[in-house]
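Cross-check.
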Amino acid sequence: MVITCSSVSTIIYLPPRSALDKLTRAFSSFSPQIMSSTLPTLQSYYWLLQVALVGLLYLSYVGIAGLLTITLSLFAKFKRTALDPLTRNGLLWMTGLLLLSCVFAENRPEAFLQLANFLPYFLYFAVIPFVLRGTERLERLALTLVIATIPINTIALIEYLLRSEFIPRSIRRIPFIRWVRDRPHAGRSMVMFDHPNWLASYLVLILGLGLGLILYHSLCQRSALSSQLSPKPLLYLGTFFCLVGIFCTGSRNGLIVAVSQLALLALCTRSNRTLLSAGLVGITSILAGAAWLGIGRRSLSLLSWLNDPRQRTWGIAIDLIRERPWLGWGLGNYKLQYPARLLAQYPKCIAEQQSDTVNVLCANVTHPHNFWLLLASEAGLIVAIGFTLWVGYLCFRAVKLLISKQLTPPDSAILLGYGFAFWSCIVFAFFDVTLYDARVNAIDWTVLAGLYAATEQGERGDRS
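Predicted model, tokenized:
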């Protein structure tokens, strides 16, 4: 059981006023029973959400089925979204523009297929705030996600050690260890993800939540009961292990994001010497480890950064935007346009691609390693700008609420934790695109929904 310094709230759904008047006149004698039956239903959705998100990490298809069930059930129950009119209408406009872009896509079947990476998550975001209202629920969900990553990060550390150059050759001949070492992306941990960067993207999200929870529990230490019963050891272990897991992925993006999160924590808690020291120690440890062991067998030399293949993918994306700026080439069409344009601009890659091992600079890619370039080239500038403004509006509200100091310190810590997590999503999106992994995509939208729910709660003055 987790006891926090926030109180448990009662969440009651209120239908439109005309319908409410009719229900009041017809069923006034039964209203207590109706209201009392609403809370257990939402509570069951909340517990199912936790199970689905943890299951998504270990049993992807089971987790996806759970999230789909929750989304459809909430929409059927409330017959409306949990969003304010401006946020809801922005989501509807983006849906319409994505559909319009698919209609005019170069390859329409592929474009409509790629809508699966957007529209289901739009609907999920629109209804999931119903079950995220209340500081206690946001705190417990974040804690569940942090603790659930401990086994993943443990496996990532073991995989990193087994793939290192320090393993004796006699041990490398063991079939299982040989299989681990023969996996793609030598020297980097993947666990069950398809790419180390996707694992890193997931872990920096959880790291942000963990940092917010550490701040939250440090503010709740005045309550002896909360201090005694809260699972602090698991929280600290889970958060620290996220740093270990991020390092084991060898993701430069992940390390940059992790350092920025620790820097933000130190900046926001500079009056708290313990947390300030923890943030600075974390930054020092990451930089020292990268300087000593490298990043996924890559050194920190300037040359390795200058020769990054992202420059080519970005350049081709910009060319695609220039040719079709408004509605783009269609979702998923970047990977179809890239090979021919790469060979046209870099003819040396023709011979390179015919060899047994293809240099990374000449390899075909599926996205431009930048979310905004992907959205602009595939869906058009209107969608890219509109989506940025929509997300920016949600983030602006959250930052404005934090600056206004209307929240209690514990509530601010929870909002800050979800802000740290979504900050990682934004920064990571500058250098990679991870929406093709359902686990990362679902957590991205869950964190944004938590940020929205915490902001709505704070603006209403609800401390539940």
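The radius of gyration is 24 Å. The chain has 23 helices and no strands. Passed to J.P. for a second look.
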